[in-house]
Backbone:
């Protein structure tokens, strides 16, 4: 009976919060929006995609999601002719919550930095395109981070990560990796630098077209047979460009792929 | 060196646990034995492939779910609605486990088969010394083939189930599974192409491009990859597709690439790559 009630309750709790942030003359843009969860204490998911600006997601010991933004980080340069800059931080942001799934969208084209605090046990899916970095801290869950012209940084992560960017770095430090779960890190112009717990069991699949590969893990590198194809008198020899290696006896596949940047796989605690 | 000794050394070598002395001994033996050399090579490939196969295990969450379900079942038996949904998820997880067992079972089959094949070759070289044994081996070999087919089938089913998962890492696991398949059927090709064009995660899509690139002997895969060029908005996926077109010398992709160049706000890195691609393919 209890759970049936809960189910109905959930339905009503599919509440949509619309937050309209309009901060006026000279007021600091540090308003925090508190988003309650319909099932507090249970695992939730955050999804946020923007085209301009940065997102920082921090896990904390709380039961709500807190969203704040700061659009006043850039000064407007020298052509103001002695005038004082007035923070113009108006923007529109929509937040929805449905059974612990929090979605944030914004129509802002400013280089805003959003800071989102979530309970530690949260799955995160964030993306940006221009002029911004993605930062993730203290999260236990599945993380998807996608950038184009900026970097991805992660600290104290327990779980799994799928990360990709074109013009930026991917720097991640894991406290714990989810066992038996594949991960993937893909870049183009920046370095990929991932610190894994020293006991991590994994099959590493690494490739950097122009860069180098570095690691302090004891790796068992697999020498792959060279594949030969015969077509009439023509012989084609294919040498695979991927480096395959096992650490701590092997485990799920972790893919590191880069073009111009190097790949660093570091041994953590 | 007698056969038994040789077998022991081979097994040690393949498992990577051979001592330097034993390795020298094995090498010396193989020096004088060409057949043994190629046999070892084949077994090594088989062994390496076996190493690649990931056997999905029920996640921690799954067993946690199971125990919470059990607890709740004890406490609230009258709650039929919740119980039925719980039972359903429990059943799903059971199915999942069964697939894992299937895989494990298949693996054991291959191992036995590998030994069988080795045994078969062994007796074959000795001539028709023992007809009964070689016949037995033939049966074993047929069994191995059956097991291999079964393993592949199980692998495909797991893949097709996982690729529909909500969790991106589960979908990634599904696509990774295809690297163990010797060939793909229509269902798998469809599933991979759908993932390539609709999956919300760029990492999953990139892995799918690499997975499909193993099976380009299928015309459907080739045309699917060419069609995907116009559908992708991620610069990394666009670049990966151009790379494949160059690798395959796929001239039919030139039009799609030219269209891509016309796109506004095309990433600079992609632009360079596409121009290079068109130049190579024209």
Residues:
């Amino acid at each position: 009976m209890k759970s049936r009630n809960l189910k109905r309750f959930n339905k009503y709790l599919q509440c949509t919060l619309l937050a309209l942030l309009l901060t006026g003359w000279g007021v600091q843009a540090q308003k925090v929006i508190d988003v309650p969860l319909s099932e507090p204490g249970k695992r939730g998911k955050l999804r946020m995609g923007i085209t301009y600006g940065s997102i920082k997601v921090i896990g904390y010991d709380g039961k709500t999601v807190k969203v704040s933004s700061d659009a006043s980080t850039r000064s407007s340069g020298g052509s103001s002719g002695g005038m004082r800059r007035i923070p113009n931080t108006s923007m529109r942001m929509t937040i929805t919550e449905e059974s612990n799934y929090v979605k944030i969208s914004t129509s802002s084209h400013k280089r805003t930095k959003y800071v989102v605090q979530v309970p530690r046990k949260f799955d995160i899916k964030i993306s940006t395109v221009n002029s911004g970095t993605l930062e993730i801290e203290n999260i236990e869950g599945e993380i998807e981070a996608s950038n184009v012209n900026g970097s991805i940084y992660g600290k104290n992560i327990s779980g799994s990560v799928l990360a990709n960017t074109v013009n930026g770095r991917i720097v991640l430090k894991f406290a714990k990796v989810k066992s038996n779960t594949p991960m993937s890190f893909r870049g183009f112009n920046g370095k990929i630098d991932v610190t894994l717990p020293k006991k991590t069991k994994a099959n590493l699949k690494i490739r950097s077209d122009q860069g180098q590969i570095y690691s302090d893990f004891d790796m068992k590198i697999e020498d792959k047979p060279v594949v030969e194809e015969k077509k009439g008198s023509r012989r084609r020899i294919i040498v695979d460009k991927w480096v395959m290696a096992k650490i701590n006896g092997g485990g799920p596949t972790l893919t590191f792929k880069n073009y111009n940047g190097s790949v660093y796989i570091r041994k953590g605690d | 060196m007698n056969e038994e000794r040789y077998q022991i050394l081979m097994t040690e070598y393949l498992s990577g646990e051979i001592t330097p002395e034993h390795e020298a001994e094995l090498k010396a033996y193989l020096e004088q034995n060409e057949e043994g050399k190629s046999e070892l090579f084949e077994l090594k490939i088989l062994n390496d492939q076996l190493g690649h196969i990931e056997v999905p295990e029920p996640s921690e969450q799954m067993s946690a779910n199971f125990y919470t379900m059990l607890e709740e079942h004890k406490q609230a038996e009258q709650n039929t609605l919740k119980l039925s949904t719980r039972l359903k998820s429990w059943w799903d997880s059971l199915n999942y486990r069964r697939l894992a067992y299937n895989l494990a079972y298949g693996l054991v089959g291959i191992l036995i088969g590998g030994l069988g094949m080795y045994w078969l070759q062994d007796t074959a070289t000795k001539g028709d010394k023992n007809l009964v044994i070689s016949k037995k081996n033939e049966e074993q070999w047929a069994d191995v083939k059956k097991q291999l087919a079964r393993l592949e089938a199980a692998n495909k089913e797991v893949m097709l189930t996982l690729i529909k998962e909500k969790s991106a890492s589960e979908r990634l696991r599904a696509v990774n599974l295809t690297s163990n398949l010797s060939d793909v059927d229509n269902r798998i090709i469809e599933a991979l192409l759908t993932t390539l064009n609709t999956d919300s995660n760029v990492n999953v899509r990139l892995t799918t491009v690499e997975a499909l690139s193993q099976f380009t002997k299928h015309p459907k895969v080739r045309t699917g990859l060419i069609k995907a060029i116009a559908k992708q908005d991620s610069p990394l996926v666009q670049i990966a597709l151009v790379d494949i077109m160059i690798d395959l010398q796929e001239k039919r992709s030139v039009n799609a690439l030219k269209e891509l160049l016309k796109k506004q706000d095309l990433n600079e890195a992609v632009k360079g790559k596409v121009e290079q691609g068109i130049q190579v393919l024209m």
